[in-house]
Write the structure tokens for this entry.
Amino acid sequence: MSKQNRRGAFIVFAAVAGVISGVVFLAAAELSALLVARDASPLLAVGSFVIDIVPQPLKEFAISTFGEFDKVALLIGLGLAVVIASAAAGILQLLWPPVGMIVLGIAGAASVAATTTRAGVTPLAFLPSVIGAIAGIAALVFLSRRLRAWQRSATEPAADGDSGDSTHGAGSAVAVDRRRFFALAGIAGASALIVGVTSRVVSATASSVAAIRKGLRLPAARTSVTIPDGAELDVPGISPLFTPNADFYRVDTALTVPTVDPASWRLVIDGMVDQRIELTFDELVEMGLDEYAITLTCVSNVVGGDLVGNAMWLGVPIRDVLRLASPHADADMVLSRSVDGYTASTPLSALTDDGLDAILAVGMNGQPLPLEHGFPVRMVVPGLYGYVSATKWVTELKVTTFEKDEAYWTPRGYSAEAPIKFSSRIDTPKIGKSVAAGRIPIAGVAWAQTVGIEAVEVSIDNGDWQRATLSTPINTDTWVQWFLEWDAEPGNHYVAVRAINKNGEMQIEEAAPIAPDGSAGWQRSLIAVS
């Protein structure tokens, strides 16, 4: 092997040593987190930090591209970044020691910073990152020494011009050093993978919250929602009246789903109040549960998008909870906080108005809240986009003012107050899927929370607007289904839809981006008929 090829091979092995050291770093950190601070995983902390600082356009790109898998995409991206950075550290440690050690030390410091600045941090949250960095640096040092010894034994005899028996002896030394490197690398890599994966799995499953949720029996509702005849249309391809829990959209800043035991959950109401209140889960439930049919919409929902869903919720009016604390007359906002530190700014009037069913929900579609949708308690507020109202895993309601406090998304380019813009959507025929010529339904859903939908109109190929048939609304807080029979002829056709609310207002035609307060525009779809 030429000297150049030999050098290239050792650089590759140095990169492998670096990657193994990175794995050791993460494994030691995960094991330490499992033992002393389960919320202090460096990878998850850095991921959450990335979510916090990512610019709004990139956030929207991630949601539109990956949907509910945006967190998975982020974790994969972080994993690739760890591999690349660790490989670079290994190469630097071989060529210019101790630069590789410094790289891992910087990574450890960054992990400590990301971990200790999270909301609700525990006193020992810094420890997993520190232990992980020490373990990773130690692994890098030992592996680099073994690799350097192998490199010396492989290159020094050739440099001296030795031959014969000395070459045979050098070959034996090379073999020994090579075996030692691969043995150490194999042991370190395998051990780290086993420890790291086991620690993460145990950390994720050690809590019995999923089992607790499964066994939880919520009290029967004091009042139930009456579903009127004709509330759901029998049209193939249309969204169901109630979105199944498994299909309900999820958009939040939690990199991993928080697990909260109802027995330890507390809701604190403080701030500008006469009396600070702290409620347990049982105390909240004992206030009495009622059913509410409410449609939720994410501010990231594009025109015609699927970040909207309708569910039957079980909960307690937030106004009843706030009444216990007696908010001050000059307060105008409630800053709700999640267990993971996320905050939302909701107008106080939207939570105390007797005509609005803003609730603390504990049930969804006949079940306790799913873990990913806020178990054990979340906020559901009709008429406001989720980022200012629908806090999941809620643990605090701070009565304050918009002047004094701001929520998570406000400094990131979104409005502090965000009433939902009413809209309509075509569910069928689906874009990109050809349909057969003949009489077919054009159908979808429309929503105008707190006001209600009066009419939906459809235009085909820029023709006259035709009134669609509406389902019977459950209330003004839920979407309605609509359909229009169409004699479809072969070819490509443009179909547009717009809604009119019960105040007589027309859905906004002019297109508007998601930021700062929600998208707008009429959905126009190209339908292929064969």
Q: What stands out?
A: The CA atoms of residues 262 and 281 lie 6 Å apart. Residues 165-205 form the longest helix (41 residues). Residues 158-166 have pLDDT under 50 and may be disordered.
